[in-house]
From TrEMBL:
Residue intervals of the Class II aldolase/adducin N-terminal domain: 19-220
Source domain of life: Bacteria
Protein name per UniProt: Short-chain dehydrogenase/reductase SDR
Organism placement in taxonomy: Bacteria, Bacillati, Cyanobacteriota, Cyanophyceae, Oscillatoriophycideae
UniProt xrefs under Pfam families: adh_short_C2, Aldolase_II
One GO molecular-function entry: oxidoreductase activity
Family to which the UniProt record says this protein belongs: Belongs to the short-chain dehydrogenases/reductases (SDR) family.
Keyword Iron assigned: no
Keyword flag Zinc: no
Amino acid sequence: MKSLWNDQEVVKYQGDLALRVYTSRLLGQEPSLVLHGGGNTSVKIRQENLVGEVEDILYVKGSGWDLATIEEAGFSPVKMPHLLKLAELPSLSDSQMVNELKTQMIKASAPSPSVETILHAILPYKYVDHTHADAVVTITNTATGWERMQEIYGDRVVLIPYIMPGFDLARLCAEKFAAEAGKQTIGMVLMNHGIFSFGETAQASYERMIELVSQAEDYLAQHNAWKIPQKSVIHPEKSLSYTLAKLRSQVSQSAGFPVIASLHCNDQTLAFTQRPDIAEISQQGPATPDHVIRTKRLPLLGNEVDSYVQAYRTYFNTHAPQAKEPKTILDPAPRVILDPEWGMCTIGRNAKDAAIVADIYHHTIEIIQRSTLLGGYQALSAQDLFDMEYWELEQAKLAKGGQTPIFSGEIALVTGAASGIGKACVDSLLKRGAAVVGLDINEAIANLYQRPDFCGIPCDITDETALKAALERVIRTFGGLDMLILNAGIFPPGCAIEGLSTEEWRRVMSINLDANLVIMRECHPFLKLAPKGGRVVIIGSKNVPAPGPGAAAYSASKAALNQLTRVAALEWGKDNIRLNSVHPNGVFDTGIWREEVLEARAQHYGLTIEQYKTNNVLKVEVTSQDVAEMVAHLCSDVFAKTTAAQIPIDGGNERVI
């Protein structure tokens, strides 16, 4: 563990709170210290209020903020005197504690304070840092963890036995700290949870954290438990797409909503899942109780989803009666699936959640294996983990719920996605919560967006081998396919039939028709498994009902694709797949309508460019976004009972009418 403190960089941060932001971000930059909102930091500041009174205020990391990107606005300012009075109470429920913390904030717009706010308050230091350092958790998650912590740190840290975060933990820490802390104390270890450091300056508190974690790393290295032996692994040679899509379908059914299932088939996951003791070491529990909210207590080993669900219900029924208040069972579907044939699959309500689960479990794999090398991995008891998973505060969040995007957990594939209508479709689907894969011959598609719910794949759709490889990647990335948007196509320059070459005819047909047949055929098995039914939308053309002269190849290819869609609707209805077409006309914000082309066509009709753009019954311009919004609606429940429809989006075309 290296200190990232930089004397040149720190001069940009003036004031106690700004320095708190700086060192918090340093901690957040190191994944082995904190992951996805884990850990928290604070600073105690004396400041004057509006009426001239001097107050002691604790600025503590607010709920929902990540240390890696936190700003001053991410810290909740809470009045210190009240916090210290709360710490002296004999008891305080979690809901009461949350209410007290909120009512004692001096800024109404600040986020809710961390549940460990009182714990930060009682520690008699200006700066307090708390992380879930992998190295520390690795050692505490062993049968002899307590003794090893004493061996490593001696009286430099106060050791706290595991207890749930919240008021009871703060009380216990206050008692232990008062009894055991001395001048030599620079930290505190919470068994099976994490580590605290503190100091009178931001630099001192931060660098003490680095020092303490480094000691734990050194201890693991000295006991041959740091470097994980690299073993040869067997990589799958066959396609995994149908296996994964089937698994995702089963998990979605168990969860009661569509999920993203992301495959992580690499040396690390395969080596872990192919261990002979995997059935023992993977079924102990998470590295820290905080992770149970994301990963559930145990991963599924193998693919028996029904067995996992039954075991989870048994787990709930066993431990719920011991709770202080009635509990509502969460969905029983796994969040981590391990299999020696293909490694690890992580599950989430959306792509971001699945990615977070993956990050957490990649670290968990290392922690489990290092703990095993140190003598044996030992997580908290099932009851302790149940209490965390069904914590009063988490149940309150569940009760409040929130509006879920309509396509959350669903996967869409859009062809011709780098620009124009295709890109607009990507945007509309992302906006509604879908995970989207974009295909395009333009290699810029790979970098269209850098976000967990988008995957851009350069692909020539006339290359059947490339198409199949792209579809395999779709399933490995997100787990299945729910929506297929067939947009890719070409509109060649105008040419009368007598001048149309066979080569040009076949080129247009290969892109506009043949490639779409292959995509539909190859996607069919996955669309059948879509939890809410498969949906296909074809971007057709006004030329289907009303062809124009000089566009024989284009008009014929689009008409044939339209007929193919109608046949597919007849054949696939039994598979709960619906197919519909939209027929746009005059969408001028696409690549084919270059400025010079637009000017030439307007002059041909004796119109201005603006008149040409609105040359329809309603006198409106049709944009890519207009088409994309129609596509999104066709994929929604609004059209749940519609298939084989052909919907014009052209402002009203006289030739069609």
